[in-house]
Task: inverse folding
């Protein structure tokens, strides 16, 4: 039993240490990195380094873009997933089971391999360099639909829907007045998961955006790939651009983990 | 009297609307997902095959049909095979230890524990860290001259390793980053499955004197096999498409030779990075699409083989 705690504590340490160390480096001066032993405590240079981040790349614009993109995607995913989840969990229609099966199966399709035609499509639509190219393809996804289906088939009492029908509700009315309130807790978890993954998305924004109108992750990669190895600059950007999200996660971690574990049991 | 037929019409109108509402509206509710997936997922994937049969570059509007020429060139391209080797090597190095460790961690967590939530949150911290942040942080840790990892290794008398320079060492460094980011996530998925295993099985095994390890091997693993199969397939599909890590590692370790080549000697260029190099720095869309399409076949083969391998596991995994 003691060994179990020791192992888990060690794993927790290795999970958290790189994040802690990035803050240490981000608050130092580049010269401190050459010290032996390496510095293990934060220094006093953090805000000066962050100011350098804003001078080097359009970081304010990047933050705004990321908030807009991740925010719109989360709202849309919450809405469309709840809508589809409601239909799959509680409505009767022909082909429902097959369609749900197909939805889950699409999670295994390596869509990244279609990236070249997807880029050509964005060129055709004249969406390259704009946030549309990031938002529109991500408005709803299979994970969200499956997640809300699972939740609503468990949490939404069929009697409640029948009572609504008797009162003369249309299907849309049921969705609006009965389903949405019930779906709220799971929707919040889905929204947070979606926000985090949209915020952290890197490869597609890199392909489709220009460096002068980036998201946070694209701006960070520009910072990190300078000709001079300026680790402090890169890590200061990382600390501002990604660690707030990690902190939010640490606060709401319990609910988010519950969500991941519920959505995970399949196959 | 004259209002009667009108009322009947109205009633019929309402019932048509009701039928539409009940029979048809569900399709409208699930439609957004399918439309979006077809437009931005399935269509591009299928269109890749069409592009791959053409001489298709950004520079010219003319796309000459060339049949399988791109595939022929590709199979004779040493860089393509180099990327295939690197993908498989990094894939095995990162996935196999990761999943074994994840099962073991889930097994450790599958008990009544103090600080259960704290352990779970810390396990998932790496996964909510963006891939850019992960590579930036680990490039520093894996630095040749002032990296923390070389400093620790020096306690044991090891010389400074130039992690980014060698084939094996760069694969180890990249696999470490991937493992760090994904082990905890997979452990939680295994844990979710383990919690559904009936407690009585373990109680009976404990009475029979089975050790924790035997219980893991004889009870847990056979009981959560569907989840293991699922995770193995998803992980291998993911591993075949690794791109952000090598791309950023090349950029931020300052190895030179351009980030898209995966190091000066292409020692860690993966298949997805090869596609990116051909498509978005050389703008040879036809050639890049052919590479994508071969990658797709490779993904299907690797996922299929792993499915068959995992399906045969009957508690004899360890």
Result:
């Amino acid at each position: 039993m003691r060994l179990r705690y020791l192992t888990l504590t060690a794993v927790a340490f290795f999970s958290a240490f790189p994040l802690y160390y990035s803050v240490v480096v981000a608050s130092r001066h580049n010269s401190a990195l050459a010290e032996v032993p390496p510095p293990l405590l934060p220094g006093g240079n953090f805000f000066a380094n962050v100011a350098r981040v804003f001078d080097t790349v359009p970081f304010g614009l990047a933050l705004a873009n990321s908030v807009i993109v991740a925010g719109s995607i989360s709202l849309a995913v919450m809405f469309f997933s709840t809508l589809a989840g409601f239909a799959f969990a509680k409505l009767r229609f022909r082909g429902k089971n097959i369609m749900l099966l197909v939805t889950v199966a699409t999670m295994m399709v390596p869509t990244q391999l279609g990236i070249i035609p997807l880029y050509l499509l964005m060129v055709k639509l004249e969406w390259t360099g704009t946030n549309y190219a990031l938002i529109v393809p991500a408005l709803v996804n299979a994970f969200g639909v499956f997640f809300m289906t699972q939740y609503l088939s468990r949490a939404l009492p069929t009697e409640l829907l029948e009572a609504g029908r008797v009162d003369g509700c249309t299907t849309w009315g049921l969705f609006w007045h009965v389903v949405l309130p019930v779906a709220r807790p799971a929707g919040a978890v889905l929204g947070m998961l979606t926000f985090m993954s949209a915020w952290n998305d890197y490869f597609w924004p890199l392909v489709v955006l220009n460096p002068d109108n980036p998201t946070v992750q694209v701006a960070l990669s520009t910072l990190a790939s300078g000709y001079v190895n300026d680790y402090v600059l890169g890590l200061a950007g990382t600390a501002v651009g990604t660690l707030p999200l990690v902190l939010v996660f640490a606060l709401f971690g319990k609910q988010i983990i519950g969500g991941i574990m519920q959505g995970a049991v399949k196959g | 009297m004259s209002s009667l037929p009108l009322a009947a019409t109205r009633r019929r109108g309402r019932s048509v609307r009701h039928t539409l509402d009940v029979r048809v509206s569900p399709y409208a509710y699930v439609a957004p997902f399918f439309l979006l997936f077809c437009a931005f997922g399935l269509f591009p994937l299928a269109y890749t095959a069409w592009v791959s049969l053409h001489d298709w570059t950004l520079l010219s509007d003319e796309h000459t049909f060339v049949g399988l020429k791109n595939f022929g060139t590709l199979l004779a391209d040493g860089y393509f095979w180099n990327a295939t080797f690197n993908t498989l090597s990094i894939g095995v190095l990162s996935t196999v230890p990761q999943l074994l460790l994840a099962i073991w961690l889930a097994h450790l967590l599958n008990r009544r524990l103090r600080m259960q939530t704290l352990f779970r949150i810390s396990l998932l911290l790496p996964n909510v860290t963006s891939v850019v942040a992960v590579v930036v942080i680990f490039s520093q840790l894996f630095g040749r001259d002032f990296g923390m990892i070389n400093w620790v290794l020096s306690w044991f008398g090891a010389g400074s390793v130039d992690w980014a320079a060698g084939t094996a060492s760069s694969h180890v460094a990249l696999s470490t980053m991937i493992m760090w980011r994904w082990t905890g996530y997979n452990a939680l998925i295994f844990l979710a499955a383990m919690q559904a295993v009936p407690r009585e099985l373990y109680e009976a095994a404990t009475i029979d004197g089975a050790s924790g390890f035997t219980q893991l091997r004889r009870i847990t693993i056979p009981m959560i096999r569907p989840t293991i199969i699922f995770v193995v397939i998803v992980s291998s599909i993911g591993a075949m498409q690794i791109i952000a890590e090598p791309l950023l590692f090349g950029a931020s370790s300052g190895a030179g030779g351009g980030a898209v080549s995966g190091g000066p000697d292409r020692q860690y260029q993966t298949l997805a990075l090869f596609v990116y190099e051909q498509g978005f720095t050389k703008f040879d869309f036809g050639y890049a699409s052919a590479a994508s399409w071969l990658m797709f076949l490779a993904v299907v083969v690797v996922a299929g083989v792993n499915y068959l391998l995992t399906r045969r596991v009957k508690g004899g995994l360890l």
In short: DSSP finds 13 helices and no strands in chain A. The mean pLDDT of chain A is 89. Chain A has one domain: 2-264.
